[in-house]
Amino acid sequence: MTAIRIDGKVVAQRRREQCRVEASRVAQSIGRAPALAVVLVGDDPASHVYVRNKHRACAEAGVDTHDVRLPDSCSSRELRAAVERINEDDTIDGLLVQLPVPDAIDPAEVRGWIDPSKDVDGLHPENVGLLASGTPRFVPCTPAGCLELLREYDIPTAGREAVVIGRSLIVGRPMATLLSTKGVDATVTMGHSRSGNLKEICQRADILVVAAGQAEMVEPDWVKPGAAVIDVGIHRIADASRPRGSRLVGDVAPAVGEVAGHLTPVPGGVGPMTIAMLLQNTVEAAGRKA
Amino acid sequence: MTAIRIDGKVVAQRRREQCRVEASRVAQSIGRAPALAVVLVGDDPASHVYVRNKHRACAEAGVDTHDVRLPDSCSSRELRAAVERINEDDTIDGLLVQLPVPDAIDPAEVRGWIDPSKDVDGLHPENVGLLASGTPRFVPCTPAGCLELLREYDIPTAGREAVVIGRSLIVGRPMATLLSTKGVDATVTMGHSRSGNLKEICQRADILVVAAGQAEMVEPDWVKPGAAVIDVGIHRIADASRPRGSRLVGDVAPAVGEVAGHLTPVPGGVGPMTIAMLLQNTVEAAGRKA
Predict the structure, then answer these.
(1) Alpha-carbon span A169 to A129, nearest angstrom
(2) pTM as predicted
C-alpha cells in the first residue's frame, strides 16, 4: 500500500483524551460528571457490541452512562415513555437510542421524541435542520469523525471535488452537508444505489467518502490517483484463513491503497472516530449547562 | 432557440387553479378560507413587489391574506412579538416573513420563531430537517416549483446527473435534497462560489439548476447538449434599447437555449412557480386542520 494510512485509532485517542480533560472541567462547573443515556431495544448482537464500546469509552473519559435496555417486544409507546423519562431527567445530558430498533417501531418517530438539546446523535429533525442551515447544534458522529480525519491529515477541501456514496440520514446526507458548508467549501456530489455510473462518479473525487453498505465495492480503478478515501463501511465476511473464520472489511477494497493518496483502514479508521465524536457531543451538551 | 421553453406561467396557472379548488374544499371543512399572513419589514422595493404579487395570487385562489408591515427601524423584539401574535392566531394557517430583513435582525433567529406548522416557506430548522430526513412537512417554495417544472415536462431524473449551482438555505440546499431524495433519485452535485471549476461541473449536468445570483453567468459552452436548464436567477440590468431603460435577466445567458434541451425563461419560468407553491403550502396547512 502506497497510500498514507489514516489512523483513526490514534486521532480518536487524542480526541478522547481532550474529552476527558473537558469532561473534568465541566464536572467541576456543574457539580457532577457529564452523563449519557443509551437506550438499547432488543437483542441485535452488533448493537450490543457497539453499546458496550460506547459505555467503555465514556467510562475512560469520565462520562457517566445510564444503560436502558428494553425487550425486543417493547412497544412504540413503551419506548417513547422511556425516552421521555430521560428527557425530563436533568442529571442526564445526552441520550441516544441505538439503531436499529425493532421493525414494529418507526425510527423516524423515535428521532422526533428525543429532546433536541440532548440529541447527541444529531438525528432529531431540528438538529438535522440546524446543520443544514449552517448553525449546527450536534453534528452526527460518523460524518463529524470523517471530517476530523480529513483535518488531522491536512487534506485540503476548499474548491475540491468530494464524492459521498450513500444518502442515509446518519452518514451520507450530513457528510455532504458538512463538506459543502462554508469554510469547508468542497464541491460535493452525492451518489447512491440509483446512480447509474457510480464508478465514473467516484473517479472524479479528490475526496471520496464511501458509506454504501456494500463490502469492497470500490475497486482501485474507481479511484483517482492521490485521492483521499474514507471508508465508512464495516462488514464481517467469511475467511477460512483466519482463526475466527471471518474478517472485517469495508466498502473499499484494500487494493485501493495502491492508488489513493490517503486511505482509512477497516477496522481502525472511521469506527473509533464515531465514538470519540459521541463523547465530544455529550461533553458539549453538559457544558452548555455550565 | 432550439430548446423547449419551459413555460412556468402556464404550469403555475394550472397549479393555482388546483389550489383554488382545494382552498374552497378546505374552506367548507374548516368554516373559513385558508389564511396567510405576510410580514414585511422595511422599504425594500423588490420585497414590496413580491409581497403584492403574493397577496394578489392568494386573492385569486380564495386564500385570505393578512398584511403585517413593520418599519425599517423595527427591533428584533418587535418583529418577534409580531410573529408570535400570528403563531397564536388560530385563524391564520400560514406565516412568512419576507426576506431580506433589515441588517439589525438575524434571519436565522427569525426562522426559528415561526410556528413550524405555519411555516409555509419551509425554512424553520425543524422543517429543513424533516425535508432532509425524507419526511417533509413544507418544501421551500422555489425548489418545490423547480421540481414541479421538471415533472410537468417529463424530464427524467432517476440515475441522471443533476447539478445545482448555489448552496443557499432557500434554494440550493433544499433543491439538492429534493433531487437526491428517494423516488427522484438523481445523482446530485452542489457547486458554489468556492468551486474552482464551475464550468466543468455544469458540463456534466443532465439537469442544471442555477441559483448563483450572478447575471448570465452560465454560457452555452457550460451546458451539455440536450440538458434541462432551470434558471432561478432574476436581475434587472441596464438596457437603453428598452422603454424602461432596463430588462430582466437570469443567471443563464439566453444563448444557452441553442444548446439545452429544455430551458426556463426569465421572467416567466421559476418565478411564477414559487408563488404557486406558496399557495399550495398555505392551502395544505389549512387542510391539516380539517
Answers:
(1) 12
(2) 0.96
* Domains of chain A from N-terminus onward: 31-115 (3.40.50.10860), 141-271 (3.40.50.720)
Task: Examine the pLDDT at A1 and tell me if it is beyond 90.
Answer: no
pLDDT at residue number B144: 98
Q: Burial level of B219, CB count in 10 A (0-12/13-18/19+)?
A: middle
For residues B16 and A290, give the distance between their C-alpha atoms in angstroms, rounded to a whole number.
52
Between CA A99 and CA B170 the distance in angstroms is 32
Catalytic choice (A64, A93, A119, A121) = A121
Residue of A123, A131, A180, A181 to mutate for B, most B C-beta atoms under 10 A: A180
End-to-end CA distance of chain A: 47
- A227-281, pLDDT tens digit by residue? 999 999 999 999 999 999 999 999 999 999 999 999 999 999 999 999 999 999 9
Which region, left, alpha or beta, applies to residue B61 given φ > 0 means left and ψ of -120 to 50 means alpha?
alpha
Q: Alpha-carbon torsion B223, B228, B232, B235, what sign? A: positive
Which of B125, B169, B189 has the CB atom closest to A188's CB atom? B189
